[in-house]
Amino acid sequence: MRKSLADKIEQYIKVLIEKSGAGQIEIQRSELAETFSCVPSQVTYVISTRFTQDEGYVTESRRGGNGFVRITRTQWINKVDNSINRNQIKAYLDDLLKRQLIGNQEYTMLIYMVESATQGLAAEQQNQLFQVIINALGKYTGIL
Amino acid sequence: MRKSLADKIEQYIKVLIEKSGAGQIEIQRSELAETFSCVPSQVTYVISTRFTQDEGYVTESRRGGNGFVRITRTQWINKVDNSINRNQIKAYLDDLLKRQLIGNQEYTMLIYMVESATQGLAAEQQNQLFQVIINALGKYTGIL
DNA sequence: TTAATTAAAGTCAAAAATAGTCAAAGAGGG
DNA sequence: CCCTCTTTGACTATTTTTGACTTTAATTAA
Fold it and tell me: Global pTM?
């Protein structure tokens, strides 16, 4: 896939977060914009569309001299909200994979399942299926 | 019968999918339209009539800058008998396990899922879920 | 200390780049 | 001649890119 600028910036940030080891980074918006030869608000755009709470991130920032944007990857599994969407469950699976609670194979299989459900099922049924998946994973992994 | 434009585009896409090796491609609708000297909506027409879920494909797309259409070929089981019960799917999973197409871990996880569905969902939803599971497994294992 | 200056980041909306929808018109096979 | 599938295009929806303007914080000058 030919990646859009937004995609590249997103990936770059995610790699930084991974490499940080702490699930958290601080960047300078203008510096990042410089790196990608774009306007600073492009960075803001990426952050506000791909690093939302739903995606499993929290962001903070400060303006003025030595300003920064801090992005933190949150650990969130006990979301008792009874409506789950595709991105949420994907983020959840990503998290389980990262924590080695499931392996690559299980992960891949589950992603196929989520995609299949997303395409073929109505919203209500999707939600039910996602609940079942979360439920089964809870028992399987021992968490929850 | 002379081949229509739609037929040619369909075939072209299918070849691309085959060559991809991953059973999946991403195209730009406008680019493909350019290739075939037709209006973009012609491509949409082909995709929506020949790459449906029933035909064994799922599609996703994104508009805007660097937008794309992603087409994924899914394995589908016989759409003849579309009612599956708990015992049937268990037998199916047993078989996959025996043939080493899935490992013990995946098997265990899926059994949890089936049990969870059996207990928490109405018959119709169970059936839908089982279909999704089989669908995803087909794709995951690569079998028909 | 206070005010002015500078150095960030945020907001918002317009412009650009794609893809989707829908209905009318066209073409071919029965 | 009809019916169905195909082709087209005008209009809509979504996502990304850009830039002008605003807000906030730190630093410097008075």
Answer: 0.64
